[in-house]
Specification:
By secondary structure, the chain is an alpha/beta fold. The protein has one domain: Rossmann fold, CATH 3.40.50.150. The protein is 31% helix and 18% strand. It contains eight helices and nine strands. It has helices spanning 24-31, 36-40, 57-66, 84-92, 105-109, 148-161, 178-187, 197-206, and strands spanning 13-15, 74-78, 97-102, 119-121, 136-140, 168-174, 212-217, 219-221, 224-227. Helix 3 (57-66) packs across helix 4. The protein is globular and about 50 Å long. The two termini are 25 Å apart. The model is unreliable at 222-231 (pLDDT under 50).
């Protein structure tokens, strides 16, 4: 299972982490409902407005090449939110069939118009799909919202529904030192499992996960937080 940075193309964003320190527990409880506040409410409770802006197009292009996807391929995005990634996958490869799964009914009801009917409501721990249903499965910044045992269960489910277990990609929250851990804890709202990269790799081995993986690691620049994507 190789380390592979699928999301290396989105622009870096600058954030003031101070807004997340105020009313932290209240905002965390609200965000974990994954409703309007999380996606389209204030920044201290989530995305601060999750709208389509094309940022997933280069990611989709990389995914198509990396996993040799083409017309007729079927893919699943676990934790797809409003379906922007699956929309761009289908836009970049006509004839590809992409589907999403998310726990949020709000996200599914407010999805991109191009993926209406393609998003299933459900949990990554028990995917509502038969064995070997997909040619590739993605889970980007999602399974860390589960407890450790459920992370393992979700990885096993990814392996169950994909035809080739090497055609999986998962990205999770991690930190490399205590400073990064503190920055992450100040900013994060929904994560339940986050740890050192080597601890994640031990978890992957326990789940017998054979696909690609990468990390979302939050770094600090002066008084602002910088990382690779909006979440």
């Amino acid at each position: 299972m190789p380390e592979y940075n699928l999301l290396n193309t989105p622009p870096k964003l600058v954030r003031d982490i101070g807004i997340r320190r105020v009313n932290k527990e209240k905002n965390r409880r609200i965000s974990m409902k994954y409703g309007r506040e999380y996606f389209d409410g204030p920044r201290e409770q989530g995305y601060g407005g999750y709208v389509y802006d094309g940022r997933w197009k280069p990611v989709a292009q990389r995914a198509l090449g990396r996993y040799k996807l083409n017309e007729g391929s079927r893919i699943l995005d676990i934790g797809c939110a409003k379906g922007f990634f699956i929309y761009d996958l289908m836009a970049e490869c006509i004839g590809l069939e992409a589907f999403g799964l998310d726990i949020s009914e709000y996200a599914a009801l407010n999805c991109h118009e191009g993926v209406i009917g393609r998003i299933h409501i459900g949990n990554a721990v028990k995917l509502p799909f038969p064995d070997n249903s997909f040619d590739a499965v993605f889970s980007i910044n999602t399974i860390h919202n589960l407890d450790r045992d459920d992370c393992i269960a979700a990885l096993k489910e990814m392996k169950r529904v994909v035809r080739n277990p090497k055609r999986c990609f998962v990205q999770v929250d991690a930190y490399r030192n205590l400073r990064e851990k503190q920055i992450f804890e100040d900013w994060m709202l929904t994560a339940k499992t986050y740890c050192l990269p080597e601890e994640w790799q031990s978890l992957y081995a326990e789940a017998d996960y054979a696909g690609d993986f990468y990390w979302t690691i939050m770094e600090f620049d002066r008084e602002f937080l910088i990382d690779g994507q909006n979440k």
